[in-house]
Design brief:
Length: 423
Amino acid sequence: MAKLGLFVVGLLHVGLQIVAAEKLELVYQWTQLRDGNKRPATQNVVFSNDSVNNTEETFNAYGNLPMGVTHHKGFLYVTIPRRRPGIPATLNVIDMAANPSINDPTLMPYPNLLVNTLRADSVADPKRIVSVYRTQVDRCDRLWFVDTGYLEYPGGAVQVQRPALWVIDLNVHRSVRRFEIPPEMVEFGFGIPNIEVDVDASDCGRAYAYMPDYEERQLYVYGLSEGRMWRFEHNYFSFEPRYGDFNVARQRFTWYDGIFSVAVGGRWRESSTERTVYLHAMASVSEIAVSNRILQNETLANLGNAVYGRAFLHLGPRGPNTQSSSHAYDPTTGVLFYAEVNRNSIGCWNTNKPFDPDNHGIVHLDNEEMIYPADLRIDRDGDLWVISNRLPIWIYSKLNRTAVNYRIWRQSAFKAAAGTICE
Ligand SMILES: *[C@@H]1O[C@H](CO)[C@@H](O)[C@H](O)[C@H]1NC(C)=O
Ligand SMILES: *[C@@H]1O[C@H](CO)[C@@H](O)[C@H](O)[C@H]1NC(C)=O
Ligand SMILES: *[C@@H]1O[C@H](CO)[C@@H](O)[C@H](O)[C@H]1NC(C)=O
Ligand SMILES: *[C@@H]1O[C@H](CO)[C@@H](O)[C@H](O)[C@H]1NC(C)=O
């Protein structure tokens, strides 16, 4: 009895110190996306009134798999990459004020339907967007993304046009930059799944986009003021052979995806101006770090890997089953959050602590509702946004079309880290 008493007292004592970790909150969910034109009562993909010729394509509900989510001032930018025919818009927005219910929020083509509509003749059209995986919003109210220009249709992939980096000013809903990625950088754009933006603290004109290519295992950098793109190559951008085996929701598969996500972190060592950039491959459990001054140096990039190779630091493994799609850094807490696709979880590491698997924690794990967190962003208010979409079931089996398959989550980074090892 004495022992038990001690145990209880000890437990209470510990309990007083712990601030309960708050899991992510469900914001929106869908079973399948629906065609707003035909079923207005339950619409969630809305065709606008633009007189758009979209005759050759009929809406394909199953093919509309949402992939990326970025929040900005009450609007959620949601992408649907064109991996099947029948997708009316690859870039969409949810007006949160107009969608108070958690179920079936309406997606509206962004900036409009015409820009998102495929030309029936498949001719390149720089005014249109073909396929987008993920987006990023910077502190200057600009939406950045790569249009891969590529239709990944099974049995009939088509490069409609050159992949291009887009920058849209969200205050006026106009494109302020469109940069075609030249063939010297990469032949096809379908391996560019993600983007991170690094903006100068006082000058919106000085901004850099970091774009990983999991297929070619390269990292492209675009300088907004330079108006040019350069690239880095490194063995650390490759997949790790021992970590290519995935087991998600009873689907077992092997992936070879290389560099997949880039996150701008805090200070690089003692420097007040340089920042640490974190990156990782998808089929990998390792994290890499490099100074943003390296990435922003076009001259250095052109000198080749033999010159810059050692500037990329291999921090080590994060822990078992921590393969991650997107990750993002919260400047207030100093915590890096990971969307962990191989264990249906959101993970974390406080960058003020040594990089070690023991210092990596789990914020949220759910083997039913958090299957395949495909994207993770942190907005300017310090809120974490996640979309989960059950992608492996969609690819290797069949989604249950009457179950909830797609979910958007939110939590303040501070609350998410509280009570975990990342506090
Ligand atoms: C379509 O046009 C009508 C009349 O111009 C307008 O009231 C309605 O809001 C428009 N719908 C969309 C989805 O833009
Ligand atoms: C739509 O297609 C028809 C037939 O191909 C053509 O006559 C018409 O001008 C097109 N409308 C627009 C708005 O492109
Ligand atoms: C860029 O790299 C080159 C080659 O290492 C170096 O000479 C130059 O000083 C660097 N520029 C900056 C701004 O760091
Ligand atoms: C599909 O999901 C619905 C709703 O959750 C459930 O009732 C049904 O049993 C599921 N079907 C299968 C085959 O699992």
